[in-house]
């Protein structure tokens, strides 16, 4: 197969224009082209009067060898790389050892799926509820119909942190072995639209994610895996620096010498337990800030000009960075076009913001985190100090919001003028249970407030209206990534605890759904190889 890149066509091109472009590029007679498929579709919106679709196309042709020779100096014609996923091994049918996976976020789910596909029958332990029950709890809390449940919320429960999200599926991690393709393919097998395989920045949306998570669970179970909900791992047993098993909150002990720790960035009690048991943990940088909301049409018209509202382009996103005079960097985080700001706490008496959207992305506002990078030097340094720092900010936000899970908010105009907000303007914030207008300058350290005050007008130069008076800030955004790293060796095992495989976002090895899924696959392979070696199977 051959791959052609940088095939550019007008936004409203007819379907057969792709074939015409292929034949023209390769100077190929039509009968020599056996078939073609779109590998990637993105757009180039740099010229707003002439937005183009940009394709990467795979073709089958009778002339492959000749074309490779003829285009050997053309960087846009190449042999299609082999992206087939190959399992590293197969469990012997009489294998008694069963690996444990803690957590059913994307990392734990993919680790579980791959191990199950190789015949290892993993036991997957999840502190929260199955996704349908979790949805009732989480949406009930957001609508103030059900009390907040610290074990069943936006962070905890089947599907992990990204279940009620925009479901953005892109990542900047290097992926030479194409594990990302395996993640996307399995998501399609579980019910995601096949377009996620070729759209440049695919997203799934909350409601679809719920069904996909259920289908992945069914697949793991059909392959001999076991998934247990409301099974919080409360302790881990280590002897001679090797894991022996786990104890659940109900005191049940489950033995295993292979434990994948995929607990996400909010499992603060679990981090404390691991630290107390002597597992090596270190502090790592993360970011803090607010969510910002604008009317989506402002973003659309700035990014797409007269093409704003075009169905192929959809709701526009943005990515912004500003390097401040005080040495801090402010950047947009987890931007959700046409989405909602959500209450993402996992602890009683705290307020945390994040964003989600449905597949249609047709809510009135665009939202994004506007966050400032911080490092362990910003707080007293012990490995878990970042968690205490997050908790302090989240508890302060809870108080500022009136102590009932409403988020504190402020208009951008007031925030920049350093005066409290008393009422909303034209932009209605989407965060539920509710928003209390106040003065957000008390909610983050001074250096972060100064950095965001400098960044917003700078962002306005890139997106006209970004610093509009009526745009709304809500806070606080503290769960941007894990404040710790549970360091591992090259074989993916903990630096000082054999058989423990720290994985995904909580361990500091992923940031987002796709990269967490990829890390889950890598760790599953490492576990499989280690078990196979131990039974002399390789
Ligand atoms: P998690 O998804 O956090 O999963 C960890 C799981 O472990 C949880 O289910 C938890 O209940 C369980 N657990 C924790 N402790 C224990 C224990 N002791 N015993 C048993 N189980 C335990 N990323 C994107 O790429 N795109 C997006 O659009 C996006 N939007 C987001 C929107 C929101 C509202 C949130 C909160 C996050 C969003 N993210 C998004 C981030 C993304 O969800 C995470 O990066 C990803 O889920 C991390 O995967 P993980 O498997 O490492 O951990």
UniProtKB/TrEMBL annotation:
Pfam families membership: FAD-depend_C
Signal peptide feature range: none
Domain of life: Bacteria
Classification via InterPro entries: FAD-binding_protein (IPR028348), FAD-depend_C (IPR049516), FAD/NAD-bd_sf (IPR036188)
Domain FAD-dependent protein C-terminal: 285-480
Protein name: NAD(P)/FAD-dependent oxidoreductase
Protein's organism: Limnofasciculus baicalensis BBK-W-15
């Amino acid at each position: 197969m051959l791959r052609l890149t940088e095939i550019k066509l007008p936004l409203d091109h007819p379907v057969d224009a792709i074939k015409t472009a292929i034949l023209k590029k390769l100077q190929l007679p039509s009968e020599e082209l056996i078939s073609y498929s779109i590998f990637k579709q993105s757009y180039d919106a740099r010229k707003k009067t002439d937005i183009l679709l940009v394709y990467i196309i795979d073709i089958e042709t009778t002339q492959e060898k000749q074309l490779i020779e003829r285009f050997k100096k053309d960087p846009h014609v190449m042999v299609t790389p082999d992206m087939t996923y190959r399992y590293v091994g197969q469990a012997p049918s009489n294998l008694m050892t069963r690996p444990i996976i803690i957590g059913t976020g994307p990392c734990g789910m993919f680790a579980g799926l791959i191990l199950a596909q190789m015949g290892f029958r993993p036991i997957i332990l999840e502190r929260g509820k199955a996704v349908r029950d979790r949805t009732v709890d989480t949406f009930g809390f957001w609508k103030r119909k059900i009390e907040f449940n610290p074990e069943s919320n936006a962070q905890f429960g089947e599907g992990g942190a990204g279940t009620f999200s925009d479901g953005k599926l892109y990542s900047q991690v290097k992926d030479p072995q194409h594990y990302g393709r395996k993640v996307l393919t399995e998501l399609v097998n579980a019910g995601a639209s096949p377009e996620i395989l070729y759209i440049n920045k695919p997203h799934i949306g909350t409601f679809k994610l719920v069904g996909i998570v259920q289908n992945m669970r069914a697949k793991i179970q059909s392959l001999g895996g076991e998934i247990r909900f409301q099974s919080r791992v409360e302790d881990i047993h280590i002897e001679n620096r090797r894991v022996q098993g786990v104890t659940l909150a109900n005191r049940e002990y489950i033995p295993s010498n292979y434990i994948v720790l995929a607990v996400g960035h909010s499992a603060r009690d679990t981090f404390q337990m691991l630290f107390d048991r002597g597992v090596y943990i270190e502090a790592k940088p993360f970011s803090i800030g607010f969510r910002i909301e604008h009317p989506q049409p402002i973003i659309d018209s700035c990014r797409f000009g007269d093409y704003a509202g075009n169905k192929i382009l959809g709701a526009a996103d943005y990515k912004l960075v500003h390097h401040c005079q005080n040495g801090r960097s402010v950047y947009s985080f987890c931007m959700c076009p046409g989405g909602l700001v959500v209450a993402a706490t996992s602890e009683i008496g705290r307020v945390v913001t994040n964003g989600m959207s449905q597949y249609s992305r047709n809510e009135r506002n665009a939202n994004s985190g506007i966050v400032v990078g911080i490092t362990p030097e910003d707080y007293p340094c012990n490995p878990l100090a970042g968690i205490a720092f997050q908790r302090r900010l989240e508890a302060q936000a809870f108080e500022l919001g009136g102590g009932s899970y409403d988020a504190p908010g402020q208009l951008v105009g007031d925030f920049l003028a350093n005066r409290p907000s008393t009422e909303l303007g034209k932009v209605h914030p989407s965060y539920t249970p509710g928003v209390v207008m106040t003065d957000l300058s008390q909610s983050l350290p001074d250096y972060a407030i100064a950095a965001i005050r400098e960044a917003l007008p700078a962002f306005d130069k890139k997106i006209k209206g970004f610093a509009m008076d009526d745009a709304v800030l809500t806070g606080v955004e503290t769960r941007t990534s894990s404040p710790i790293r549970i360091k591992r060796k090259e074989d993916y095992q903990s630096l000082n605890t054999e058989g423990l495989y720290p994985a995904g976002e909580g361990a500091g090895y992923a940031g987002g759904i796709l990269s967490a899924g990829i890390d889950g696959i890598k760790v599953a392979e490492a576990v499989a190889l280690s078990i196979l070696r131990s039974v002399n199977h390789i």
